[in-house]
């Protein structure tokens, strides 16, 4: 097996990486992804059967056949540095991030890159499994208090925790009020509205919240207070908008009336906000140990939850 130490391609690759990660407009998440891809390319170069000519230069490394072979090895999990549960096949989101990073490195090195067609993002239809739910709660517990997250992401973390603990639907989440939270956010009252309402009446449940969810929820409530304070009114909803939008109601001039941040979310708005933030989060978290991509629809996160209420359930 040939050694990689003096491959000109790697010297040029390292210089391109240094150039792009030193830029002020390269986020910490993107820099981490670029280092991840560069590490995989190093390991790919010493794989048996990898094109030997790819060692000659960065342009050669990013030509069609070496790039195709690298992406194939990465997709099959052959370039991992640690074992993972299951088949180890990379997700579509991971493959798209790899292609993004290859394009960025090529531009930084002033060379072309030949990439195959990007895989389309699939619609995830399976519910979140027990293992992923456990990973998510552990992740929330470790990251809920970390600085640097934007308001939308802080809201998402709290929302995920509440859904994992309660299995609440979008409409039930939007109906949550501050008064529904118990002392120290240890419980939450959820009014269940089954889909077949004529057969199953609404039921009120008091459900316990886990430690990770409480931590994420407390941070969101602090952010929420800042959002609703300028409104000078009593906004009781737990889930509110983090940026201004339009109401869809025209004013006297026919223009859509703006709605400020801090307004209660409606079910469709909450579902859209969840999807929008999850798409960004899944991309940012690619390659981080312990992270599995979240489904893009809130319903898929909710479906597999079997929350046990505290014995105070009463029909309305």
Automatic annotation (TrEMBL):
<dbReference type="GO" id="GO:0003677">
    <property type="term" value="F:DNA binding"/>
</dbReference>
<keyword id="KW-0233">DNA recombination</keyword>
<protein>
    <recommendedName>
        <fullName>Tyr recombinase domain-containing protein</fullName>
    </recommendedName>
</protein>
<dbReference type="InterPro" id="IPR013762">
    <property type="entry name" value="Integrase-like_cat_sf"/>
</dbReference>
<dbReference type="GO" id="GO:0015074">
    <property type="term" value="P:DNA integration"/>
</dbReference>
<dbReference type="GO" id="GO:0006310">
    <property type="term" value="P:DNA recombination"/>
</dbReference>
<feature type="domain" description="Tyr recombinase">
    <location>
        <begin position="150"/>
        <end position="226"/>
    </location>
</feature>
<dbReference type="InterPro" id="IPR002104">
    <property type="entry name" value="Integrase_catalytic"/>
</dbReference>
<dbReference type="InterPro" id="IPR011010">
    <property type="entry name" value="DNA_brk_join_enz"/>
</dbReference>
<dbReference type="Pfam" id="PF00589">
    <property type="entry name" value="Phage_integrase"/>
</dbReference>
